[in-house]
Amino acid sequence: MKQESMKVLFFIRKSRLKKNGEAPIFLRVTINGQLDEVRIQRSVPLKLWDNVKERSKGKDRSSTELNSYIEALKVRLYQIHKELLCREALITPKNLLIKLFSKEERHLVLQTMRKCIDDWTSLIGTEYQPSTISRYNNCYESLQTVIKDFYRKEDITFHELNGEFIDRFEMHLRTVRKLS
């Protein structure tokens, strides 16, 4: 497997100022000399952009949120790059950016589980028993409860699952549901 060299750069375009005077922020990904770039749908006042640090110099809430968003994009890009390396998939800047901003890539845990349970329900009597579907529904309800409690969200992506959540889910099953 050939080692891929990836560089990530955030920059502004002063030549494309918005009506409010802010500069749009772009993300450029370079892999082995091949590059692609995209606007990240965020902008920043010219005087607040730090070219060296590739982020806003501001201390206000919007600058902090912008910097967090930039950092999250960067982390996610490296995660995608690592996943593609592990799968020995074709890695191009364009592929990375498509995966980064694609909603279809981010499957939701509860949504996926609900679809599976609904599909399996139609197979009751041939491949599944009602009691099996009931168990899956109980598991779904427990997951839903713990996701709301732990993440404070209605649903999460599979990428958000972590060991701490698994421990919390196990404790929920043992203490609340009284399962072993």
Task: Describe this structure as you would to a colleague.
The chain is of the alpha+beta class and 180 residues long. It has 5 helices and 5 strands. Strands 1-2-3 form a 3-stranded antiparallel beta sheet, covered by helices on one side. A two-stranded antiparallel ribbon has the order 4-5. A hairpin with a 4-residue loop joins strand 4 and strand 5. Helix 4 (130-151) packs across helix 5 (163-176). The longest helix is centred in the middle third of the chain and has 26 residues, at 61-86. The mean pLDDT is 89.
> How confident is the prediction overall: mean pLDDT?
89
Order of strands side by side in the largest beta sheet? Answer: 1-2-3
One letter per element, helices H and strands E, the order comes to: EEEEEHHHHH
Biggest pleated-sheet summary: 3 strands, antiparallel
- Provide the gyration radius in Å: 22 Å
Give the arrangement of secondary structure elements.
Blueprint: E1 6-12, E2 22-31, E3 34-45, E4 49-50, E5 55-56, H1 61-86, H2 93-101, H3 109-121, H4 130-151, H5 163-176
Antiparallel strand pairs: 1-2, 2-3, 4-5
Helix pairs in contact: 1-2, 3-4, 4-5
What is this structure, in a nutshell?
The chain has five helices and five strands; from the N terminus they run βββββααααα. With 180 residues, it is α+β, with helices and mostly antiparallel strands.
